[in-house]
Amino acid sequence: MLGHVDAVSGLYYLLLHGWVSVFGDSAAMLRLPSALAMAGSAALVVLTARALFDRRTAVFAGLLFALLPVVTRYGTEARSYAFVVLAVSAATWLLLRALERPRPGRWAGYAVAVAAAGLLHMVALLFLLPHAMVVALRWWRDRRGRTALSFVLAVAAGLLPVIPLVLLGRQQVGRQINWIKTPRLRDIAGLWDNLFASPLVGLGIAALALLPLAWSRGRRPAVELMLLGAVPIVAVYVVSQGSTSYFIDRYVLFTVPAWAVLAAAGLAALRPRAAGAAGLAALVLLGVPDQRHLRTEQAKETSDGRAAARVIAQGYRPGDGFVPVRGADRVYMVDFQIEYYLPGRVQLRDVFAARSALDADDLFPQECERPEQCLGDTRRIWLVTRGSGKDDPYKRLPAEQVRALKGHYRVASTTEVRGLHVSLLERTG
Fold first, then answer.
1. 10-residue block means of pLDDT along the chain (429 residues)?
2. Which pLDDT score is estimated for 247?
């Protein structure tokens, strides 16, 4: 599949493949690696805050990051973004250590983190822009020529294994993200809200992030953190004005640790000292409604594939066919969702799939060009479409498939589950 589509996610797929072979593919086990990655990111946030500020700021930073709604969201999603946050957080901390005491081992560790971030998500490499700015600022202050050279060599070494992936990814970009629209300036506000999965929390972070810039004691590290957080967002906006847009919140999720540390520095700067703890509590409380929503099943799965599979399993007969909605809705992968929950005894024939996704080496099956010829002698078909289909069980199904089904089948029963409509079709002749 990686040769045709989604090669940029290959490293994450490889990691998860090994994980599943040991721990299984239950929903909990599929999500757990992301939770562990976010836990590691929280530890690195603490270390980064301690390196730039003090212990009080580090405590605030760790607590704030761990309690952000967006960390809850991506810490419980079986996708690569939590690992990207971990890799970039590691790169930032390793860079600070290398700038403090330049040693070959520290620069080598930084190169590994750069490679990991790029292999997990190429857009994340935008973090190298603010890193270069931080190095330039440190060089201007200390005038250590070797530091700048070491940074360049480490970046070059880290990018080397990413180059083949970049070349392959460029060939596949049209299939992956052609749905992302070119952003306008007003879209930055929406990205900021989504970046923290809570408009109120995002507003609080923005206010606190400005405080350290007002005090001379923490201004230098605050400026560095502002670069780490803001420059990738500006860069992705500028790049997205071209032929391909990358302007979506999760692509810059790796900036959240920088914003968390900067906001924590703002909390630590408040006087009296109790005001910092009160500010942290207030910020956490602002995110409680979003946290409660994100911790529900509905937040993770907009449709109840388990319930749909249960309906099919209860009425199943050997030889039954299966028609899940695809077409424009194929990205929701209704077919995979239901098949995941079906018991082993239920073997449905995917009626309109000329080649399965596995046989086609793709994310999606290759569908029949002439649906009516693919019906065969199937007597019963389970039709599953998205949304409410009480008035139209064929909702959002491709027109040719609708004509083929209506011409040879009648709707014997219908069942509504959350987000899905399950219909049993029986042949009329």
1. 85 95 94 97 98 95 97 95 98 96 94 97 96 93 81 97 88 77 94 96 95 78 96 97 93 98 94 94 96 85 91 96 90 91 95 91 90 93 83 88 95 93 93
2. 95
* The two structure tokens encoding residue 207: 């206010």
Helix or strand (DSSP H, E) at 144: none
Q: How many CB atoms lie within 10 A of CB 300?
A: 14
DSSP β-bridge partners for residue 280 = none
d(CA 417, CA 412): 17
Coil, helix or strand at residue 114: helix
List the structure tokens of 293.
């929503």
Tokens linked to 92: 């930032």
Q: How far apart are CA 194 and CA 249, in angstroms?
A: 6
The whole-number pLDDT of residue 388 equals 65
Helices 199-210 and 187-195: angle between axes, nearest 10 degrees: 100
pLDDT at 147: 87
Residue indicated by tokens 């290759």? 366
Kindly give the interhelix angle for 104-120 and 163-177, rounded to the nearest 10 degrees.
Answer: 30
All residues at 6 or more sequence positions from 64 whose CB lies less than 8 Å from its CB, including other chains: 260, 263, 264, 267, 280, 283, 284
What pLDDT is recorded for position 389? Answer: 53
Q: Where are the strands (E) in 279-328, listed by range?
A: 321-324
Strand pairing category for 321-324 and 349-350: parallel
What's the rounded Cα separation, in Å, for the pair 76 and 294? 9
- Helices 27-52, 81-100: axis angle to 10 degrees equals 20
Tokens of 72: 């809850």
Bridge partners for 417 per DSSP: 420
Which sign, positive or negative, has the C-alpha torsion 131, 146, 158, 19?
negative
Backbone region of residue 387 per phi and psi (left: phi > 0; alpha: psi in -120 to 50; beta: other values): left
